[in-house]
Design goal:
Length: 552
């Protein structure tokens, strides 16, 4: 399968990979037909999806079954008058119906808008009106149903609400009954062009309303690198990415690249994260590959790993937050596996990562993907030198790379802010070492300027996280008459240290940071709190902390 989309699929070194990775993009590419249905025709019994939940239920879908079920689902959606370019919001947690829904929507050329079950009435109204959403397909959870119903009076574009159960309220369509009664599916005459919008993601805004990131139909091909050369998957792989389907991370790790690479996707549908349950799944189902944020790995290594057979595990990757080197070392000692980091955004696919040919440097993102022309740009517009901070940009001299969003949907102002001078500006800062490895600093807006130094919150947070007292923290700048700004740490303490909150512990943490990183970066102000302000996706809202401090 993968050879249809790459000029060369196997590489012997990082240099070979960077020089010879070339995508072949078919005209009118459609993931549902060109990958899912193609697998169904050629290897109908090949495993596509292995789904389990915390109630000990299990469903296996071969590609033949996936084609059959998504054909029915597409036919049912057509009966609701959902057609090409129509916007459909999907709130399905980790239910297997998500895969049926997204593939079915691809088959009719409709636009899928994944959304988290954490949305409230206000969030749903905003999204419905911002994108003119006409249909919502949702988990039949009473809370989700309630928020959607409450939003209807202020959602004029909405025509259909579809529930997958267990609750099917009045005024709602029954997803499973609709599929059962669906007429034979007839593929529309013209489903899509490559440039058509396939997917819209609402980013969790850390500074304002969420932006609408629009991706076209070739976006799945951008995730070949994610699955094949970061997750290091092969046709015998069973891959688990821990992510809710409301976030694009699910599409990074639970669908596109994995199926193109011929791997099967494992899904664990759970209400509450339990480290032992994840380890049991790896043990019971012989999962070969795992991708999760570093926090998850921190929880896993606290368990007694000797109770589980993890010998099936071949490869593990991480993204999304600071990696504590101690976690890297401990996991490596316990499993023999070196955690490999990656970096990207909702607007992109995998931009920077640690490939199989590279030795990981704990804390480093890795090197740029050959899919993107990546540079670090200083504030005065030149390429940053080794060791010098710069904003991560993607140069567009050779056109728009596959996987990069072309624009923010219906927002020309934001588009022009991010795309100009033939570059896409990520808004993230990093520096590059002598070996070409990139090290994340933080959002450009979050950088603290103190006594002539530029201090990224990420590296100070990473240093603090190596202390056992710190469960979570946020680094911000507070105004200072002498230094311009000083570093402030807002910290959630572990249970064992909560009673010790005070000046003595603050001094201990300050000294700790001085030892772990450059002394000028230590937090001169420390505040202990019970919780941090966050976006709906769990990102820390440093802007809220700054605003609160400015009013003191």
């Amino acid at each position: 399968m993968i050879e249809r989309f790459l000029e060369k699929t196997e590489f012997t070194s990082q240099e070979d990979f960077e020089q010879n990775y070339k995508l072949k993009v078919p005209a009118n590419f459609n993931f549902a037909y060109d990958v899912v249905d193609a697998w169904a025709a050629e290897q109908p019994d090949k495993l596509a999806l292995l789904w389990t939940n915390d109630k000990n239920e299990c469903r296996r879908f071969t590609f033949a079954e996936m084609k059959e079920e998504t054909d029915k689902t597409a036919s049912y959606f057509l009966s609701l008058d959902i057609k090409k370019d129509d916007k459909v919001m999907v709130i399905l947690k980790r239910r297997y119906e998500f895969w049926l829904t997204i593939i079915a929507l691809h088959k009719i050329g409709a636009v899928i808008i994944p959304a988290t079950h954490l949305l409230t009435k206000k969030d749903i109204i905003y999204r419905n009106n911002a994108a003119d959403i006409m249909t919502i397909v949702a988990d039949g959870d009473e809370l989700i149903i309630g928020h959607i119903n409450d939003a209807m009076a202020e959602s004029p574009s909405m025509k259909h609400r579809v529930s997958i159960g267990p609750v099917i309220p009045e005024g709602w369509e029954d997803f499973h009954k609709g599929i059962e009664n669906a007429a034979p599916f007839v593929r529309p005459a013209h489903v899509n062009d490559n440039e058509d919008i396939m997917l819209i993601s609402f980013t969790s805004g850390t500074t304002g309303n969420p932006k609408m990131v629009a991706h076209n139909f070739v976006y799945p091909l951008g995730h070949i690198i994610t699955a094949k050369y970061w997750h290091n998957l092969h046709e015998g792989s069973l891959h688990l990415t821990i992510a809710d389907t409301g976030w694009l991370k699910a599409l990074w790790g639970k669908l596109y690249g994995q199926w193109i690479a011929g791997a099967a996707v494992f899904v664990y549908d759970h209400e509450k994260f339990t480290p032992s349950a994840i380890l049991e799944k790896i043990h019971d189902y012989h999962i070969t590959s795992l991708c999760a944020p570093p926090t998850i790995f921190r929880f896993l290594i606290r368990e007694d790993l000797t109770k589980y057979d993890l010998s099936s595990l071949e490869y593990c990757t991480i993204a999304g937050e600071a990696l504590n080197p101690a976690v890297y070392e401990q996991f490596h000692q316990l499993t023999g596996i070196k955690l490999r980091e990656g970096y990207g955004q909702s607007e992109t696919t995998l931009v920077i990562f640690t490939s199989p040919w590279m030795e990981p440097k704990p804390g480093s993102m890795g090197v740029p993907s050959p899919n993107y022309n990546v540079d670090l740009l200083t504030p005065d517009g030149r390429s940053a030198e080794e060791g010098e901070q710069g904003q991560i940009v993607i140069r567009l001299d050779n056109g728009l790379p596959v996987g990069l969003s072309e624009r923010y949907y219906r927002n020309e102002e934001l588009t022009n802010e991010a795309y100009h001078d033939n570059m896409y500006f990520t808004g993230d800062l990093a520096w590059r070492d002598e070996d070409g490895y990139f090290w994340f600093v933080g959002r450009a807006d979050d950088v603290i300027k103190s006594s002539g130094y530029r201090i990224g919150p990420f590296e100070v947070e990473s240093a603090l996280m190596t202390h056992p007292a710190v469960v979570e923290c946020a680094i911000t700048g507070v105004p200072d008459e002498i230094r311009g700004q000083v570093v402030k740490a807002t910290i959630i303490l572990s249970k064992e240290y909560k009673a010790k909150a005070g000046e003595e512990l603050a001094k201990e943490l300050q000294d700790h940071v001085k030892k772990v990183t450059a002394p000028y970066k230590y937090p001169r102000v420390i505040e202990f709190v019970d919780e941090l302000p966050k976006t709906i996706s769990g990102k820390i809202r440093r802007v809220e902390i700054r605003d609160k401090d400015s009013k003191k």
